[in-house]
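I'll show a record.
***
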Amino acid sequence: FEIGEAKWSGLTMKVGGNPLASIPLITGRSVYVFQPSSPPTTLEKMRASNLLGKEITMPAGTVQINGNTLTLEEVRWSWDGDPLTGAGTSEFEVGRILLPAALMKDEEGGNPLAAAGYGDLEFAVEGKGTTTLTEEAWGFDFEMRFKGNDIGTLVVDLAAENFPMALFSALDASDPQVDTLMPLVQAITLKRAKFRFEDGSLTGRIIAM
């Protein structure tokens, strides 16, 4: 069923009693809630585990990594497709990701990026893609752009199809067997894989080191 407007506030995630993530607010428009059958099919399990809505936004959130705080701001995701399967087209963006310099320290406590003149790192992410889903197989076609402030932009362009649903069922087993997985993996078709880096100032800084 569809919920016209939804709001989640004060969300937190902990691991072993330690805080991992904090999200003050998430809002959704035309959010679809899926109720699987009993017992659920593999496709229904995948669909039930995903939150789908015409538009979902998160103004800000934080993630704790080794005692340091990674900050995300202006997160937006839009989707249009079949609410029963989850197949459709989507767009995703994160306006700002702030990685503190302390997060980049190596085992000896040094920061290898500091030699290139970098301190805290700031990124933005945007992407769009299409997902296909049936009772037999899953596929995707998407492009993501990771833009680093004063660094450059990494473009990832991937497309694949024929991921058998039986593969997800096998992976969901308590003891997945390699002999069972390999024939299923071999059925996957990689249609496109492109990686491109558009330099901002990273290359020049490395050369100057």
Summary: The mean pLDDT is 90. The helical segments are 42-48, 165-171, 178-185, 202-208. The first helix runs from residue 42 to 48.
